[in-house]
Structures are given as C-alpha cells and as structure tokens.
Amino acid sequence: MAILQQWLIQQRQAKKLTLEQLANRLGKPVFYVQDVESGKHQLDVVEYLFYCKALDINPSQGLELIESSLTSN
Question: pLDDT for 6-63, tens place per residue?
Fold first, then answer.
C-alpha cells in the first residue's frame, strides 16, 4: 500500500537513517529495504512490526494511517 510505503520512508528520513543503516538494524541486505520502499516487497504483519521496531516508531500509527485512507475513499 503506497500510503504505508511513503510513511515508512518519511519515518526513516526523519530519523536520519540511510538505507544501509536501517538494513543493518533489521539484519537484512540493503535491497530488502529498497524493495520495501519501492513497493516490490510488501511487509507481512510480523515483518512490519520488526520494521517499526528498527525505526523506533509506533506501528499503530501506520495502521491508523491505512485505516483512515480506507474510510476516506
């Protein structure tokens, strides 16, 4: 979902983390983060929770963003 991708990118940039730094926090290769941010890879629920933990953000905020985008359409 594009709205979640954009939010995750904004959160990474707000934390001033590079793709490489986030990948290291996740224990994943850089292309994993690139694929998530480009939409080539959609996170499942568990991956999303780990991703949010690596970014030190509240996963509920992203879910609320998705919910609000669904109800506004």
Answer: 999 999 999 999 999 999 999 999 999 999 999 999 999 999 999 999 999 999 999 9
CA–CA gap between residue 30 and residue 69 (Å, rounded): 29
Contact partners, residue 43, CB within 8 Å, separation at least 6? 36, 51
CA distance 47 to 51: 6
pLDDT of the residue at 72: 72
Q: Are 52 and 58 in contact (CB under 8 A)?
A: yes
Task: Specify the amino acid at residue 35.
Answer: D
Indicate the pTM of the whole model. 0.91
Which ranges constitute the DSSP H helices of 1-73? 2-14, 19-26, 30-38, 45-55, 59-71
Q: Which of 51, 53, 55, 62 is nearest to 15 (CA)?
A: 55
